[in-house]
Amino acid sequence: MDINTDAIDEVVLALLYLNLCGENRAWRSFDWDALDRLHERGLIGDPVNRAKSVWLTEEGLGEAERLFTKYFVRPGG
């Protein structure tokens, strides 16, 4: 099976936005490979740490909001 990891990463980032606590932290309860790819792209901080959350970079926060709207907000809503 050829998995579209780009689509997975987009949805994970959108769901991180849904789980924001504070200004830019979100629970990191998603696939480690996806989190590693988001980190490599500079959208989140290093997910390998003692905290149970990750922080979204400024770019990551903006992209997460855009993707959340794209996937989960009804048009006109």
Describe the fold and architecture.
- This protein is mainly α and 77 residues long.
- It has helices spanning 5-18, 32-40, 58-72; strands at 20-21, 25-27, 53-55.
- Strand 1 and strand 2 (25-27) form a beta hairpin.
- Helix 1 (5-18) crosses helix 3.
- The radius of gyration is 12 Å and the shape is globular.
- It starts with a helix and ends in a 5-residue tail after the last helix.
Notable features of this structure?
77 residues; mainly alpha; Arc Repressor Mutant, subunit A; 3-stranded antiparallel beta sheet; 49% helix; globular
Q: How would you summarize what this structure contains?
A:
The chain is mostly helical and 77 residues long. It is built from three helices and three strands, in the order H-E-E-H-E-H.
General form = globular
Strand content: 5-15%
Give me the CATH architecture, please. Orthogonal Bundle
Number of domains: 1
Backbone structural class: mainly alpha
For the record, give the distance between the C-alpha atoms at the N and C termini, rounded to a whole number. 36 Å
Helix content: 40-55%
Strands in their spatial order, largest beta sheet: 1-2-3
The CATH fourth-level homologous superfamily: Winged helix-like DNA-binding domain superfamily/Winged helix DNA-binding domain
Helix-strand pattern: HEEHEH
Q: What is the CATH class? A: Mainly Alpha
Q: How many separate helices?
A: 3
Rounded mean pLDDT score: 94
